[in-house]
Every structure is written in C-alpha cells, then in structure tokens.
Hints:
The protein is an alpha+beta fold. Helices cover about 20% and strands about 30% of the residues. The chain contains two helices and ten strands; from the N terminus they run αββαββββββββ. The chain starts with a helix and ends with a strand. A hairpin with a 2-residue loop joins β1 and β2. The protein folds into two domains: about 5-45, no CATH class; about 80-160, CATH 2.40.50.100.
Amino acid sequence: MTKNTHDADVTFIEALAKLLHDNDLTELQVKREYGEDDSLNVRVSRAAPAAAPIQVAAPAPAAAAPAASPAPAAAAEADTSDPANHPGAVASPMVGTVYMQAEPGAPSFISVGDSVSEGDTLLIVEAMKTMNHIPAPRSGKVTRILVGDGDPVEFGSPLVILE
C-alpha cells in the first residue's frame, strides 16, 4: 500500500469517527474495496455513556417493614416500563433506517393488535443500501410499535413489543 493510500485511509477513518460522534452512534462498520485482493475493513465504535448513579434512600424503620412488601412488584413494573427491558421486545440487529412497508404506498407489515407467527416480517431495516427483513422471533400479538417509518435505529434498539 502506498503512502497516499495510507493517508487517504487515515482521513477516511477520521471522517468515520466524526460521523459516529456527530450522529451520536455507538458503532459504524464499513468495507472499502480497492481491488480484487485489496480492501479495507473499518469498524469504529465507542462505549455507551455510563448510566447516572442511582441514589438509594436510607432504610426505613423496622415498623414500616410490612408496608414495603409491594416494592418488588413496583421494581418489576419499572423494568418493563423501559421497552428495552421488556421480555417481548424485538431488538434491531443492526444500525440502519426503519421501513414499515415493502415499498411506498404499500400496507404496513404490522399494526398494533396484529397476531404474527414466528418468521413473519415485522419491518425492514435498511443498512448500507441493503433491505434487511426483520422476522418475528416467536409467535405473538403486536402490543407496541416503538419506531416509525424512516426512523434511524441503532444496534439493540427495541423495535416492537410482542406478547
């Protein structure tokens, strides 16, 4: 590889890092083909920001202990209020753009209340000009759709809740 190609690659990688930062992405992967036996594979990623520290209240006096029994139910409810923690969440397998139908003007693949079978297409995530059909991982009923047509998504973002 010549020095000019090396310098161009460094500039390209720096541009990818800037794109990652400017669009608040966590990961970006690109393959650049130079010839039959010459290519550049680049994966730029960064750690997700650390969660804010959780503040814990001081323990209640012993007399209030029986009233604390509903707390486990409240904690379980808090876990499912975040769609990413919901047991029926279908996560995005890649970074891309969501499309709810096969082509403009066509009916959506799913609507809230629809029953789907394992393997049915829920939506499409476009990544690098490739349309990736996202299948239902199990049969169930669509209770929430967490993304809209044309929305950008990141790897692991919750897309749909199936119950």
